[in-house]
Amino acid sequence: MDEGLENHEHSECSEPPERKRTLNWVDLLTVMIGIAVIYIILALGTVWLMKWWPNERVLMYLNAFLTQFSFFLLIWLLKKLRHWEWSDFGWRRPVFLRKALPNILGIYGISWLFNIAYAIFLYKQGMSPPTTDVYTKLLGQSSGVTLFLNLILAGVLAPLVEETMFRGLIFGSLRTYCGKWTAAVISAAIFSGLHFQAYGFIPRFILGIALVYLYDKYKSLYPNVALHSLNNIIATLIAAKFV
Predict the structure, then answer these.
(1) GO BP, one example (predicted)?
(2) Which of 12, 104, 108, 208 is the most exposed place for a label (fewest CB within 10 A)?
(3) 232 alpha-carbon distance from chain centroid
(4) What is the pLDDT of residue 139?
């Protein structure tokens, strides 16, 4: 019986990844360095532009859209250089909405319960969301134009690009070397940390774990994008005081 259990555990630990291809350690490290470089260059560029063009809101939108574009460019260059297909990034096996919807809504509901409990805990500790935070400044704008930009940025671009990058590429490669759940923790930490918001690190980390669960369950990024979009759209509307 012990031998059977050992064989079963070995088969689980050595299960092949669903992705057709994965990055080696050098390429994976290069991608992570590339992500950091993108953030640093855009941040320094934004600070420099503020000396000449003090319209902070416009510069924040420019930074946000350029970040997503740069991520997409990094993914596209990797696709061309490695001769990958989009399916190698996780875009395969479209899932019927009615099949995945119960899990998407269930995970979303659980994440919001956690967010509420987390916010109450921080409030009791005398902490509150920073009013000078870049996300507060962007999402808190409730004019028609800014709301439209926020919904495009947070509800469409970010889910598509970030799911391809953090779940399809980084998690999909990491799990080859360190196992599913270790890879889930690392990729979720990177995903949350790169938002550079200490107050929201834990909720985004939990969301990252939930998104890994969906990707692992359906072997496709489509449910991930649906959950990510739903989460961001509702958060955007709440921040703009529309719900």
Answers:
(1) proteolysis
(2) 12
(3) 11
(4) 63
* Domain contains 15: no
Residue 69 is inside which H or E element, if any? helix 56-82
Q: Looking at the domain assignment, is residue 12 inside a domain?
A: no
Residues of the chain with pLDDT under 50: 1-19
The verdict on residue 96 lying in a domain is yes
The predicted pLDDT at position 141 comes to: 61
For residue 236, the model assigns a pLDDT of 87
Distance CA 233, CA 150 (A): 9
Q: How far apart are CA 143 and CA 105, in angstroms?
A: 29
pLDDT given for residue 10 in this prediction: 43
pLDDT recorded at residue 6: 45
Distances (CA, A) of 3 to 6, 7, 8, 9, 10: 5, 6, 9, 10, 10
Reduced to 3 states (helix: H, G, I; strand: E, B; else coil), residue 117 is helix
The C-alpha atoms of residue 48 and residue 29 are separated, in whole angstroms, by 28
CA atoms of 218 and 224, how far apart (whole Å): 9
Q: What is the pTM of this model?
A: 0.84
- pLDDT at residue 5 in the model: 41
Residue 192's domain comprises 23-239
Number of domains comprising the chain: 1
